[in-house]
Each structure stands twice: as structure tokens, then as C-alpha cells.
Design a protein that fits this description.
The structure holds two protein chains of two kinds.
Chain A: E1 4-7, E2 10-13, E3 19-25, E4 32-38, E5 44-51, E6 57-58, E7 67-73, E8 76-81, E9 90-97, E10 105-107, E11 111-115
Parallel strand pairs in A: 2-11
Antiparallel strand pairs in A: 1-3, 3-8, 4-5, 4-9, 5-6, 7-8, 9-10, 9-11
Chain B: E1 3-7, E2 10-14, E3 19-26, E4 32-38, E5 45-50, E6 56-58, E7 64-68, E8 73-78, E9 87-94, E10 105-106, E11 110-115
Parallel strand pairs in B: 2-11
Antiparallel strand pairs in B: 1-3, 3-8, 4-5, 4-9, 6-7, 7-8, 9-10, 9-11
The chains are: A mainly beta, B mainly beta.
Chain lengths: 116, 116
């Protein structure tokens, strides 16, 4: 079946540093990748949608200069949290979609970011 | 705006007992509804979906859900719980199916525990 991986699975960093999270579709090419953020006991919230070779589309309230998304190939998208602060600590989840329908969206296992 | 409410952040059942996970939604247009399951350290997996047609939908692992428009509900059930069903379950709604943007709205999730 379709598998999406994320690396790293967890990361701890100091305030002010930047952190890069990778999302890979291992056995399929993804036309679209999505990034979600999940705070404890909260819903997954969509941050941005990215199509290969295009600029990401960010949801309202998400700072595009802080959360840099690069979708350089059909199997890799990266999320860079720039100048991270403690309030950026969260669980970041990516998903990759092989077609247009929502049920062709496959999710990665998530990355736990803790900013000290 | 769409929203999803999952009643009960934690549900505990005995092995062999009925599983009932509740999901209510709000949507101004006919909704598309989904249930996902997340096992520890894994990505969300699609359990089942409702798009159109029969309101009782069957998914993987013996789960099913019924779309009740009058009650704006999409509760997930399984007649007999198994230890392997222990996981976190997310209900999601979308106002489109097959669109080019990510538009899944998730509930906060319900953690299911199964007692021997």
C-alpha cells in the first residue's frame, strides 16, 4: 500500500533555530502534499497545500515566512520552521495525495517538535 | 464553516463488546464524511468514507458508519471489539470531493481502549 514517511520522528531544538522536516511518499508519486499541525487534544489543522514545482498555498493565519514549504519533487516535500519558538512546539503531520479525491490521501506518522 | 465534534476523547470497552464512537458535523452543503484510524507511531489510515448513495457504509476491520442527515451524525460502530482495535480514531468532513485543495476538517479524535 501507499506509504508516507516523515523524518525526523521527533526533534528538540533551542529557541531561535530552524528545523527542517521531510515528508516522502515511498512507493508512489504524489501530485499534492499537505502539512498539518496538531496541538495536544486538538484537531489536525491544515497549514498548507503544496503541488510539485509550485508555491505552497497557506491557510489563513499561517505565516508563510515562518513555515517554509518546498515541494521539489513528486516524492518529497519539506517543511522548515524558521526561528522556532516554544509556541511552535507541536505535532506536524504531512500527507500525500496520489489523485484528486480525499480518499487517495495518505498520511505520514508525524514529527514531534519541541522548542526549548 | 464546517466543523466536526467527536463526543468523548477517550472510550474504553471490553473485548467482544460493541464499539460506538460518536461524530457530529456541521456543514452548509452536503458533506463528505470520513473516519480515520491512527495506530501508535503510524500515519492516519482511512477506515471508511461516505460520499453519496447508501447511508450505511462499511469499512475495513469490521467497522461501519451510518450517515444520518437529520441528526448530522456519522457515528462509527463495530459489533465486537478486538484488542487490535485499540487506537485513536478521527472523524473528518469535507465540502468537496476531488478538489485540488486540501479541505479535510478533522475532529479532535477519540482514543479507544479495549480491555481484555
Amino acid at each position: 500500500g501507499a506509504v508516507v514517511s516523515q523524518h525526523p520522528s521527533w526533534v528538540i531544538c533551542k529557541s531561535g533555530t530552524s528545523v527542517k522536516i521531510e515528508c516522502r511518499s515511498l512507493d508512489f508519486q504524489a501530485t499534492t502534499m499537505f502539512w498539518y499541525r496538531q496541538f495536544p487534544k486538538q484537531s489536525l489543522m491544515l497549514m498548507a497545500t503544496s503541488n510539485e514545482g509550485s508555491k505552497a498555498t497557506y491557510e489563513q493565519g499561517v505565516e508563510k515566512d515562518k513555515f517554509l514549504i518546498n515541494h521539489a519533487s513528486l516524492t518529497l516535500s519539506t517543511l522548515t520552521v524558521t526561528s522556532a519558538h516554544p509556541e511552535d512546539s507541536s505535532f506536524y503531520i504531512c500527507s500525500a495525495r496520489v489523485g484528486l479525491a480525499e480518499d487517495t490521501q495518505y498520511f505520514g506518522p508525524g514529527t514531534r517538535l519541541t522548542v526549548l | 464553516a464546517q466543523s466536526v465534534t467527536q463526543l468523548g476523547s477517550h472510550v474504553s470497552v471490553s473485548e467482544g463488546a460493541l464499539v460506538l464512537l460518536r461524530c457530529n458535523y456541521s456543514s452548509s452543503v452536503p458533506p463528505y464524511l470520513f473516519w480515520y484510524v491512527q495506530y501508535p507511531n503510524q500515519g492516519l489510515q482511512l477506515l471508511l468514507k461516505y460520499t453519496t448513495g447508501a447511508t450505511l457504509v462499511k469499512g475495513i476491520n469490521g467497522f461501519e458508519a451510518e450517515f444520518k442527515k437529520s441528526e448530522t451524525s456519522f457515528h462509527l460502530t463495530k459489533p465486537s471489539a478486538h484488542m487490535s482495535d485499540a487506537a485513536e480514531y478521527f472523524c473528518a468532513v469535507s465540502d468537496t470531493y476531488g478538489g485540488s485543495q486540501g479541505n479535510l476538517i478533522f475532529g479532535k479524535g477519540t482514543k479507544l481502549s479495549v480491555k481484555p
